[in-house]
């Protein structure tokens, strides 16, 4: 027991130190885990050996990775990618395998061994590529979508290969064809079963779990769902990772998607690190040192071979040359399932010992070099003089439909959050709310409101809400301890964003300011000021005096509203502000009176109000012509005196 504890402690300590060191010098964490594995393995310092249990735990990292990847998709999105997955993906595997067979056969291998090696080279590393795409935020770029489409088909192609290798060794073609057909039937059945469970059972389960509002239960349920889906596909002889992906995809359309991804991330990242450690432990360092010249040549050939095939196939499918080449660089390496297939081929005498060691070394080193090449992709493309061009179908739009910036993030969509949103909407100020009450989220989303489910203190969820690009974050809860936790999370994600916080009273005002809150609104103070205003008014005190008293009381409370609460001699109720013109943005709902009418028909000039600009579909038109027809969701910029603009707004909305 003490030996196991010492081994695990040494492994974790080495991983922590190396990840820190590699990050400090700008290298990816994947390399640190691979080096940790080399040091811990039998060809390094050798304090650990790979056991079945360790392999299984490491495989869970891939399961959670594919589950989180599935959350990024849904059935409609996957159907939109069918040309990539089943078109480009199948072409890539087929062409790479066929061309690779002839290339390996030229090296004096028999056709059987050539097929095995070529099929290994056709696969790429889902673990490496997806992790890098997620960390760099490029998953929704066109090259990221191309890579994901091909990786999904490769993961599906692993299943028949796992079945085919043992049967090829028997050299009975009829048995092979029958077994593959049976495997495909099983795969179709388990996919339909998981789809039915995800469609009708999982949403109800998570609705019940979310209604309890216990973070531990939500995390536990997420882990159980991912593992159960993986176990189900494993029982049918398929990949555990494929089941986890399908389960994640079924939940990708639910309001829990962002929270699920946030909860699964810590387990995924730690177990993925362990997976790369086990990969590093398989590297035969003396063999690599002895054959380093041949391995370098093989790495160069593999890079050139796969990049050219993937780039050419992608361009034949109508992709830009820049995206096609970048996708090739993403997918040039051998994949993690290749190690499983190498072991299987070696077990059934399809490969000799030297070929097995060479392929393992080639796979490990190709995965280690990949992060560096991906990081250098822009430089490589520039040196090759490859520039982007126009593309007729940009699938990235399907997966990145709304990139929020300069918006308001409302943390909590209860009565206070809804009131804030109701005032922001007519001013055409974009906003996004985060709420953990599932019933409230479902009702809001049904009504078309931009509301995400999850806990506001989750850094991953705040990143999904683009808090770092927001103009303001509003904390609507009044509990100090909860606000403290949320503020810490906000500051980790966006150190410079402005924060407006609500509090029960002013007892924690200074503490909130020290935490980095820009402005604090104590509800007890506002309630008392409103109450005393009514008391004074109903007692006969003139409204001017009431405004002066209340403004003076507020003056030192709100830094950003000093100009409004000036308490000067001007009567706020006087109409002399009407001498000034101002601009006001108005978003037209579908029920607005002005929809489907021209600007000329509305005759706003009679009300002495002018439409100075119009924003439609993300484009702004300055000085729109009188014959332009207004559409629903148009944002009009009205110019005029305040009271006239107010009347014009009512006219445009209600007639």
TrEMBL record:
Residues 570-654 form the RCK C-terminal domain. Keywords: Antiport, Ion transport, Membrane, Potassium, Potassium transport, Transmembrane, Transmembrane helix, Transport. GO terms for cellular component: plasma membrane. It is found in: Membrane. InterPro entries: Cation/H_exchanger_TM (IPR006153), Na+/solute_symporter_sf (IPR038770), NAD(P)-bd_dom_sf (IPR036291), RCK_C (IPR006037), RCK_C_sf (IPR036721), RCK_N (IPR003148). Pfam families: Na_H_Exchanger, TrkA_C, TrkA_N. It is a multi-pass membrane protein. The chain crosses the membrane at residues 6-22, 29-50, 56-75, 84-105, 111-133, 145-169, 175-197, 217-250, 270-289, 296-318, 324-344, 356-374. One of its GO terms (biological process) is potassium ion transport. Residues 405-522 form the RCK N-terminal domain. This is Potassium transporter. The keyword Transmembrane helix applies. Its main location: membrane. It comes from Pseudoalteromonas byunsanensis. One of its GO terms (molecular function) is monoatomic cation transmembrane transporter activity. It comes from the Bacteria.
